[in-house]
Design brief:
Blueprint (H helix, E strand, L loop, with lengths): L4 E2 L12 E9 L7 E13 L3 E4 L5 E4 L1 E6 L1 E2 L10 E5 L2 E9 L2 E2 L2 E2 L1 E6 L1
Antiparallel strand pairs: 1-7, 2-3, 2-8, 3-6, 4-5, 6-12, 8-9, 9-12, 10-11
Length: 115
């Protein structure tokens, strides 16, 4: 059941979602390497503002942007976070982190930090 998005009942600024994106999860296989599987295909809010964060081992990591997708993008096998990449137009960007903020106990959106 790839590509499942659970919509939030709360209002979302759909007029700001202007970037057409495809989110892929890379699923590891033993003999073929990672296989990309489409999790989300649609419009999202894309912020190209770059920022610098510090990783677990105190290394600087430069993030190239952030995506905000309305609702809860479900990963395969019931995982909360996932590895993969995002295709924005002809550009491919790796996923650094996935956050799912809640509003009154309901996941409002899926935020994806990009490398």
């Amino acid at each position: 059941m790839p590509g499942v998005v659970i919509a939030s009942p709360f209002p979302f600024p759909d007029h700001e979602a202007t970037a057409y994106v495809v989110v892929y999860q890379e699923q590891d296989t033993e003999d073929q390497g990672p296989i990309p599987i489409v999790l989300y295909d649609g419009l999202a809010i894309y912020d190209e503002k770059s920022k610098i964060v510090y990783g677990k081992d105190s290394k600087q990591i430069s993030l190239s942007g952030m995506l905000i997708i309305h609702g809860d993008v479900q990963a395969l096998d019931g995982k909360i976070a996932f590895q993969g990449f995002v295709q924005i137009g002809k550009e491919k960007k790796q996923i650094y982190a996935v956050r799912k903020p809640k509003l009154l106990g309901v996941i409002y959106s899926t935020e994806v930090d990009l490398l």
